[in-house]
Write a structure and sequence with these properties.
Structural class of chain A: mainly alpha
CATH class of the domain at 4-85 and 124-129 in chain A: Mainly Alpha
Strand order of the largest sheet of chain A: 1-2
Oligomer: homodimer
CATH architecture of the domain at 4-85 and 124-129 in chain A: Orthogonal Bundle
Distance between the termini of chain A: 18 Å
Largest interface: A-B, 58 and 58 residues
Number of strands of chain A: 2
CATH superfamily of the domain at 4-85 and 124-129 in chain A: Winged helix-like DNA-binding domain superfamily/Winged helix DNA-binding domain
Number of helices of chain A: 6
CATH topology of the domain at 4-85 and 124-129 in chain A: Arc Repressor Mutant, subunit A
Radius of gyration of chain A: 18 Å
Largest sheet of chain A: 2 strands, antiparallel
Helix content of chain A: 40-55%
Order of helices and strands of chain A: HHHEEHHH
Strand content of chain A: 5-15%
DNA sequence: GGATAAATGGATAGTCAAATCCACTAACGG
DNA sequence: CCGTTAGTGGATTTGACTATCCATTTATCC
């Protein structure tokens, strides 16, 4: 569903969001915590910085921190930075003109995309952390928060 | 959301489902109707045949037809034939052991996958065609059927 | 100011899906 | 039986994404 870059970026941002405000974390620190290969993570972090999601500080004691509060960063925003986030089907994929509606097949698929995208657009990093400070992200605990959608147990 | 092979396969199967039962359609015929490049479509059709979704007939007047009724073919079945269908997140992607639950981040993502997969598993090709015979698939009409989920108009 | 720490930018391999091509086999028609 | 039609199987090319490496710039500490 997500590409690797987006998965890595989400891990990094979620991790940074758990740190005290404005505390710097170097690429190496984040790599240890998120289990992402350092060279690739550096590239991902650079992209997030250019996008205005992170703030970078060079030199000794430098590193990365969130450029805004976790409640202002949506999951979709991060996915878009890496061309992840499944694309809506706007027009007939067969290239047939004059159709104002999608056919049933592509409508079905687009509905699934729309559902996922709506959730990603309205979920912030803050939401993922949860209001309860006991909950720890990145698989570092047993906590499981409900995010409004029922978990399908198949 | 879907890879090209799965998209092409769905188009082909939906098209075949609109034909009179057991009528053969050659790869060329299907290619014309679904706007899929012939060589690639041939490969897709071969896969569907091996999977038991289609029946192939060689020689003059030959071609492909559904191997079972459209109500017995699910969308998920076709996606699985091409490793499309977004994968559920079963275990912690960070490789941390001893965790019986996903963290909030991966839970959120997995919920979206689960929702889509549930719909694909319960929707058959027959459902896509719609009970109303007026409705034409593959963007060949203006019809739009509701498939149980609200359309998101953004 | 020199040494060290750390982000930046660009260039470079590896991998996999998308797409194409060609030689081969099977079925039907005259 | 011979030719045409059409599916089968394998080899190949292309491009995007994953991943890595190195030289450069910036900032801090002594």
């Amino acid at each position: 569903m997500l590409n690797q870059s987006a998965e890595y970026a989400l891990r990094a941002v979620v991790h940074l969001a758990t740190l005290p405000a404005d505390q710097q974390a170097s690429a190496g620190d984040i790599s240890d915590r998120t289990k992402v290969p350092i060279p690739y993570l550096q590239k991902v972090l650079r992209t997030l910085t250019r996008r205005g999601v992170l703030h970078a500080k060079r030199g000794m004691g430098g590193g990365f921190c969130l450029a805004k509060s976790s409640g202002e960063i949506t999951v979709l925003e991060i996915l878009n930075a890496f061309d992840s986030s499944p694309q809506r089907i706007e027009t007939c994929p067969l290239g047939i003109k004059g159709h104002t509606h999608l056919c049933p097949l592509h409508t079905l698929i687009d509905e699934q995309v729309a559902n996922a995208q709506r959730v990603f657009a309205t979920t912030t990093i803050h939401d993922i952390l949860g209001s309860d400070s006991e909950i720890r992200p990145l698989c570092d605990g047993l906590a499981r928060v409900s995010l409004g959608l029922p978990k399908d147990n198949r």
